[in-house]
């Protein structure tokens, strides 16, 4: 469990430079346009970290939420915050500590933010396949991906053309476009994606 050790160390030492400290504006805007009567959809946030979106989802009537992270410290922190700020959260939200690549389930919506960039780029094809596997027919993977390079990593950078090639075998690419409502430090350096699990899963 090398990956877990790596991330747990970062959490223990508070090396969490990716953390925005609040709900991600593009994810918030995406969630806001989901009709009230559809807020029973099954939502997953993998690599959720501090998971500010969890409380936002609960406050806005989402009723079936799963937050997943490989680092026990991240999950313990989120559990404490939920208990403080969202009493009764257990009725609508599941906290899971584990490896995304070993996770199973069927979700209607998976939200991405600074998770793909946290993974070794060699894992990207496995990421695309796993995301597709975790989505129910017609389900969506939505969120933000960096559209820039970094020296070393994590975070590891990437660009639209690469994402297009990565996801096309598994998804109908509804949106893959420059993000117009990124958090300040990421302005001009992100794309927003909405990928639909419509075609049959390739063998
Ligand atoms: N999405 C959060 C956290 C991003 S950092 C945010 O935007 O603030 C990436 C997170 O992914 C870390 O919390 C790390 O512990 C987690 N992670 C890394 N590899 C993982 C894996 N294989 N499975 C689940 N979580 C993982």
Description:
This protein has 6 helices and 7 strands. The chain has 203 residues and is an alpha/beta fold. It has a single domain, classed as Vaccinia Virus protein VP39 (Rossmann fold). A 7-stranded mixed β-sheet has the order 3-2-1-4-5-7-6, sandwiched between helices. β1 (42-46), α3 and β2 (64-69) form a beta-alpha-beta unit. The protein starts with a helix and ends in a 7-residue tail after the last strand. S-adenosyl-L-homocysteine (SAH) binds next to α1 and β2. Residues 3, 7, 18-19, 46-50, 68-71, 74, 99-101, 113-115, 118 line the site of S-adenosyl-L-homocysteine.
- Name the hetero compounds present: S-adenosyl-L-homocysteine
User: Tell me about the biggest sheet?
Assistant: 7 strands, mixed
User: Span from first to last CA?
Assistant: 28 Å
Shape: globular
Q: What is the second-level CATH architecture?
A: 3-Layer(aba) Sandwich
Strand content: 15-25%
Runs with pLDDT <50, length 5+? none
The CATH topology is Rossmann fold
Mean pLDDT: 96
Give the name of the CATH superfamily. Answer: Vaccinia Virus protein VP39
Fraction of residues in helix: 25-40%
Number of E strands: 7
Number of helices: 6
H/E element string?
HHEHEHEEHEHEE
CATH class, please? Answer: Alpha Beta
Number of domains: 1
Radius of gyration: 16 Å
SS class: alpha/beta
Question: Keyphrases for this structure?
Answer:
7 strands, seven-stranded mixed β-sheet, 203 residues, alpha/beta, binds S-adenosyl-L-homocysteine, Rossmann fold, globular
């Amino acid at each position: 469990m090398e990956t877990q050790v790596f991330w747990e160390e970062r959490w223990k030492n508070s090396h969490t430079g990716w953390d925005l400290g609040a709900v991600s504006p593009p994810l918030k805007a995406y969630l806001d346009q989901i009709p009230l009567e559809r807020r029973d959809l099954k939502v997953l946030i993998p690599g959720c970290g501090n998971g500010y979106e969890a409380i936002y989802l609960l406050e806005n009537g989402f009723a079936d939420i799963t937050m997943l992270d490989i680092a026990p410290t991240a999950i313990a922190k989120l559990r404490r915050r939920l208990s403080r700020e969202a009493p009764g959260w257990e009725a609508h939200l599941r906290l899971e500590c584990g490896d995304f690549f070993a996770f199973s389930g069927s979700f209607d919506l998976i939200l991405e933010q600074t998770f793909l960039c946290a993974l070794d780029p060699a894992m990207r094809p496995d990421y695309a396949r796993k995301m597709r596997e975790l989505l129910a027919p017609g389900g969506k993977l939505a969120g933000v991906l960096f559209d820039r390079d970094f020296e070393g990593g994590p975070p590891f950078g990437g660009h639209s053309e690469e994402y297009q090639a990565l996801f096309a075998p598994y998804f109908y690419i509804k949106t893959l476009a420059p993000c117009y409502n990124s958090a300040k430090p990421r302005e001009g350096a992100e794309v927003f994606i909405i990928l639909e699990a419509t075609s049959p899963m390739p063998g």
